[in-house]
Automatic annotation (TrEMBL):
Catalyzes two steps in the biosynthesis of coenzyme A. In the first step cysteine is conjugated to 4'-phosphopantothenate to form 4-phosphopantothenoylcysteine, in the latter compound is decarboxylated to form 4'-phosphopantotheine. Catalyzes two sequential steps in the biosynthesis of coenzyme A. In the first step cysteine is conjugated to 4'-phosphopantothenate to form 4-phosphopantothenoylcysteine. In the second step the latter compound is decarboxylated to form 4'-phosphopantotheine. It comes from Cellulomonas soli. GO terms for molecular function: FMN binding; metal ion binding; phosphopantothenate--cysteine ligase activity; phosphopantothenoylcysteine decarboxylase activity. This is Coenzyme A biosynthesis bifunctional protein CoaBC. Residues 1-186 are annotated as: Phosphopantothenoylcysteine decarboxylase. Keywords: Decarboxylase, Flavoprotein, FMN, Ligase, Lyase, Magnesium, Metal-binding, Multifunctional enzyme.
Length: 411
C-alpha cells in the first residue's frame, strides 16, 4: 500500500519516526511529506533514510514530476502525525501553500489526522471549528491523548502513541473495502474497565485498556453501523464518528448501557466490569494507624450487567454478545470456565479469551474462542484486535441472518 506520512511542525514529530518504522515493517511504501517547520524537529536525512524515498516540502520542488498533484493522487492512505493547530487550520481553509496541504487537497483516499498541541490550543473555539469542518468533509481526526505535554503541563493534546495511530489508519483502509453489512444498524459497545471507589483516593479496578472494545467500535463504524461506545476509564482515542458516553463504575456503566441498548440492534459487552465493590465508600482517605493494624474491607456483588441484558432484551430481535476474560485454574481450563459462563449468562454469543502473563489486556493482538449460548464453539480466531473485531461482527451477522432478522426502528 502507498502511504503518505505528513509531519507538521510540532515537538511530537519525533514519535512519527517510530510510526514510519511501523508502517515500513508492515510492508507499506511510505512517502514522508514534512512541513518546513517540522524539519526543525526531525531532519530530512532521517526521513529519507528510514523511508527510502525522497523528501520534499515545497510545491516548487520536483516541478517536472508535478509533485504537488502526483503525491496525493498516487496515495492509498494519507496520515498526518502530528497535525498541529496550524496544519488543521490550513487544511480546513483549503490552503495549498506547501506540499503537504496541496497533497491533502488532491487526495481522494482515506485521510487520518492525529492532532498534537498544547491543551489551550486544542480547546480553543477556532481549533474545535476546524476539526468539525474537517470531519464534516469525511476527514478522520483522532482525539488527542491526555498526558504530559511540552514542559511541565499535562492535559488533552498529547499525540497518540504510534501503535494507536497505526491501528486507526489501517482500519480506515479496511473500512473502504469492507461491505456495509451493518449499514443502518445501531450497535452499543462497552469498553475498558470499571473502577469501584473505596475512598477519594483508592478504588478496585482491573487491567483492561479498552483496546478490544475500541476495535469493535471502529470496525462496526467501518461496516456502516451507527455506534455508541460506553467507555469505562478508557484513555485511548475514540474513533471519529462514534458517539461516546464516559463512565467510571459498574453502576454508571449499567445505567449508560441500558439507556443506549433500548434502541440498539446489537449490544457487545467488551468492558471488564467489576464483579465486586466495597460495601461502604469512605468519605475521607483511609489512614494508616500507628499500631500497624490493617482495615477490613467488606465487598458486595455488583449487578451482572451482561446477564441482565440477555434476560431483559430491551428491544425485539436484539443480539447480545459478552466477553469473558479467563484464567485457567485447578477447577478448569479457560475454555471450560467460558462454557460455564456462556450457560450462566444467557447471551447469544460469548467471546472467551485468556488473560494474564502478557495475554489479553493491553496487547495489540488477541486470541479468542467464540461460543454460542449453549457453550458450543462457533469459531476460534487469533490476530490483531481489529481482526478479532471483524470476526465477532461476522459471527453476529451469521447468527442474526439477513437484515430483516434484526429489530426494526420506527420513524
Amino acid at each position: 500500500m502507498r502511504i503518505v506520512l505528513g509531519v507538521a511542525g510540532g515537538i511530537a514529530a519525533y514519535k512519527s519516526v517510530l510510526l514510519l518504522r511501523l508502517l515500513r515493517e508492515a510492508g507499506h511504501e511510505v512517502r514522508v511529506v514534512p512541513t518546513r517547520a517540522s524539519l526543525e524537529f526531525v531532519g530530512r536525512a532521517t526521513w529519507e533514510a528510514l523511508s527510502g524515498q525522497p523528501v520534499t516540502t515545497d510545491v516548487f520542488e520536483d516541478v517536472d514530476q508535478v509533485a504537488h498533484v502526483a503525491v496525493g493522487k498516487g496515495a492509498d492512505l494519507v496520515v498526518v502525525a502530528p497535525a498541529t493547530a496550524d496544519l488543521l487550520a490550513r487544511a480546513a481553509a483549503g490552503l495549498a501553500d506547501d506540499l503537504l496541504t496541496a497533497t491533502l487537497l488532491v487526495a481522494r483516499c482515506p485521510v487520518l489526522l492525529a492532532p498534537a498541541m498544547h491543551t489551550e490550543m486544542w480547546q480553543h473555539p477556532a481549533t474545535s471549528a476546524n476539526v468539525a469542518t474537517l470531519r464534516a468533509r469525511g476527514v478522520h481526526v483522532l482525539e488527542p491523548d491526555f498526558g504530559r505535554l511540552t514542559g511541565a503541563d499535562s492535559g488533552p493534546g498529547r499525540l497518540p502513541e504510534p501503535e494507536a495511530i497505526l491501528a486507526a489508519a489501517l482500519a480506515l483502509v479496511t473500512a473502504r473495502s469492507a461491505a456495509d453489512d451493518l449499514a443502518g444498524r445501531r450497535v452499543v459497545v462497552s469498553a475498558g474497565g470499571t473502577r469501584e471507589p473505596l475512598d477519594p483516593v483508592r478504588y478496585l479496578g482491573n487491567r483492561s485498556s479498552g483496546m478490544q472494545g475500541l476495535a469493535l467500535a471502529r470496525t462496526a463504524l467501518a461496516r456502516g453501523a451507527q455506534v455508541t461506545l460506553v467507555a469505562a476509564n478508557v484513555a485511548l482515542p475514540v474513533p471519529a464518528g462514534v458517539d461516546v458516553v464516559r463512565v467510571g463504575s459498574a453502576a454508571e456503566l449499567r445505567e449508560a448501557v441500558r439507556e443506549a441498548a433500548a434502541e440498539a440492534d446489537v449490544v457487545v459487552m467488551a468492558a471488564a466490569v467489576a464483579d465486586f465493590r466495597p460495601e461502604t465508600v469512605v468519605g475521607t482517605k483511609i489512614k494508616k494507624d500507628d499500631d500497624g493494624s490493617v482495615p477490613s474491607i467488606r465487598l458486595v456483588r455488583t449487578v451482572d450487567v451482561l446477564a441482565e441484558l440477555a434476560h431483559d432484551r430491551l428491544r425485539d430481535g436484539q443480539v447480545v454478545v459478552g466477553f469473558a476474560a479467563e484464567t485457567g485454574d485447578a477447577d478448569g481450563s479457560v475454555l471450560e470456565h467460558g462454557r460455564a459462563k456462556a450457560l450462566r449468562k444467557g447471551a447469544d454469543l460469548l467471546v472467551v479469551n485468556a488473560v494474564g502473563d502478557g495475554k489479553g489486556f493491553g496487547t495489540a493482538d488477541n486470541d479468542v474462542t467464540v461460543l454460542d449460548g449453549g457453550g458450543d464453539v462457533v469459531i476460534t480466531a487469533s490476530g490483531s484486535k481489529d481482526e478479532i473485531a471483524h470476526t465477532v461482527w461476522d459471527a453476529v451477522l451469521a447468527l442474526a441472518g439477513p437484515r430483516s432478522a434484526f429489530g426494526t426502528h420506527g420513524g
